[in-house]
Design goal:
Blueprint (H helix, E strand, L loop, with lengths): L1 H9 L2 H9 L2 H18 L9 H7 L14 H14 L3 E5 L4 H9 L4 E3 L15 E2 L14 E4 L3 E3 L4 E4 L16 E7 L3 E2 L2 H7 L7 E3 L4 E3 L5 E3 L6 E7 L2
Parallel strand pairs: 1-12, 2-3, 2-4, 4-7, 5-8, 7-12
Antiparallel strand pairs: 5-6, 6-9, 10-11
């Protein structure tokens, strides 16, 4: 018993190793790495950090960006299938058919487009107006349909990512109206979420849209439109 007690007191063991991991030096290094990365993302100068040394200490077993060799046609088919799984309506058109497709999806009610949307998209919607970014969000309650572009789309999950540049508008524009028509260029479809994260600017506000807004109560009764558009139409432009 004495020998066992002496060994437990003197050997480092798991508890001592864990304590070493929580040492002030280890904490300071972790804090420095985090703060340096934040400063770098904000475009501020940072002390020298060796990315290779950091990567060597961090296990990365998940699939990285660029791991999927699928071509544009396959990615488009995968994206269309997964968007439809969410209950969104998907239309695939050529560039010359886009204006007619948007008009067909929009319906007869008031239509508002993001400020930077290509005017050619609205050629068959003469009464559509542009959103005023400074306008009151409550005024969007009177809007039936909003038309926007997107930043990137994810084939594996059927997700659309908005970074709210002028062709996508402010966040309220795609959260308040009941119907969102989103145009996705085939060239904007990437395979996975890591691919999407690699493409977008992390300094911008990002909204990830996976189908129409939906929630459910404890009895799993699905209710759509509680936190955003009740209807989502995705128009994929090929070529």
């Amino acid at each position: 018993a004495g020998a066992g007690s002496e060994q437990g007191a003197g050997a480092p063991g798991a508890a001592a190793a864990a304590a070493a991991d929580r040492s002030p030096a280890g904490t300071d290094e972790a804090r420095r790495v985090v703060l340096d990365r934040l400063a770098g993302a904000l475009g501020r100068p940072t002390p020298s950090v060796d990315p290779a040394a950091v990567a060597a200490r961090v296990p990365r077993h998940y699939r990285p960006a660029g791991a999927d060799p699928a071509g544009a046609e396959e990615l488009t088919a995968r994206f269309v299938r997964h968007v439809a799984d969410y209950g969104a309506r998907v239309t695939t058109v050529s560039a010359g058919q886009l204006a007619a497709a948007i008009a067909a999806q929009a319906g007869p009610g008031p239509v508002v487009a993001a400020p930077g949307v290509d005017p050619a998209w609205l050629a068959q919607l003469p009464d559509a107006r542009r959103d005023d970014p400074a306008g009151a969000p409550a005024a969007l309650d009177a809007v039936d349909t909003v038309v926007t572009a997107c930043a990137v789309a994810v084939a594996d999950t059927g997700t659309i990512v908005l970074d709210h540049r002028p062709d996508q508008g402010r966040r309220a524009l795609t959260l308040v109206p009941d119907h969102h028509v989103c145009v996705v260029g085939q060239h904007q479809i990437v395979a996975s979420v890591p691919d999407a994260v690699h493409v977008v600017d992390p300094r911008r506000v990002l909204t990830f849209v996976s189908g129409p807004s939906a929630t459910s109560d404890i009895e799993l009764d699905r209710v759509e439109g509680v936190h955003g558009p009740r209807r989502l139409d995705v128009v994929v432009v090929t070529g």
